[in-house]
């Protein structure tokens, strides 16, 4: 079965890191966000991925083809007109009667995909949330979806749509998106997938929901760090470093160098990073970063960045150089 993974967005909420890298290549718990997604998809039997690229798309393409051997089709979305538009761009690569799995490129999930992919109805992953106003939500009755609402101002349901969609047949989805685009029907300025699915429901298509308990957003610095923490807690490294204290869970790239450091908990140290005389907790340190004479908490340090001195919480992009005396 084919999976569609839209990753064309600019990731503005994760600047400065996304100035030099697409969001999905940011490291969380030792591998890029999209690596976590691909591993889950391949384990579930997905053998072909259609990846919608745009902003820094060549980097995504290069990383995926280097690290995975399944068939990839890269579709360029030149303008970010919304998720429905992104999916619509894939039309030439999918037959109308083909089933389809769509997964957002910035969401790491924990769910058994096999029952989803063999569902007899189209079905959407949902999770109960306290404040549904930030999400698309599903109003259900007896397990069937009655209505979908994108970012409701008044709470109609607390079942947020998590970004994992299974469609029995892709043809009717494309027809709905045709309708949105032909009539310029946008919500919050974009062609929304939620609106296209709602049109299908209105047209009589049956949709059910399935629960996604593990749903880890990576779209903002705070959620990237909390996802890093959650994933590390599921299994970190146990290697010992002489002269250092490692407070698990952590991920430390095998080729990183550590000297007189206290690392963790909940910390990722990237490839070839050099850490000396430092205390680092709840943080993500990029590849080839150099960190010294510092105590860091809840911080994100980009690739090739250098930092030494005594700030406590920082968010610095690639190639930054900060020396505080
Ligand atoms: P987001 O809106 O969360 O991602 O879209 P973004 O645009 O990259 O991030 P911000 O809002 O600027 O911080 C969810 C997913 O859908 C993809 C994005 O790449 C992301 O993986 N997307 C969204 C597209 O591929 N095309 C679009 O037109 C919109």
UniProtKB/TrEMBL annotation:
One Pfam family this sequence matches: NTP_transferase
Keywords annotated in UniProt: Transferase
Domain of life assignment: Bacteria
Entries under InterPro entries matching the protein: NTP_transferase_dom, Nucleotide-diphossugar_trans
Ranges for domain Nucleotidyl transferase: 2-233
One GO molecular-function entry: transferase activity
The name this protein goes by in its record: NTP transferase domain-containing protein
